Amino acid sequence: MLPPYPTLYEINTWVWLSELSKKAGCQIDLGSVPSTEWDAIAALGFDAVWLMGADNLAQFNRWDRWETIAASIPIAVFNRPGWAFRALSSPAAHALAEARIAEKAAARTARTAPPAWVFITRPQIDLSSTALRSRHGRAKSAS
Prior knowledge:
By secondary structure, the protein is of the alpha/beta class.
């Protein structure tokens, strides 16, 4: 079970929140995610994981101190249509290859000492976080 106030390290969670909002029929943000959704994540064994789209993994090596990020927290990379090859053949993916967790073992990602990462192939949503932020009047991400 998650603690009463879970910490969520996030990047580009707008896609997930948009899907939750669609399902709920109202606007959902990180502060209003239904407890049933957190329970579903906890049931998979997740605790604290950095969420990232495959498009970000493809250029992760260009981020300032990306190695420090990878060494600090487990990462779940969600595939995006057309991005799998570029993401998985990226310099960051190659540098972190030994830390990759098989998708079928994704539930242990949060309990694995970093660096640790998993590439999640399904579901794929063909909508960028930039488009979602624009649609909802949000500022552009710093990443």
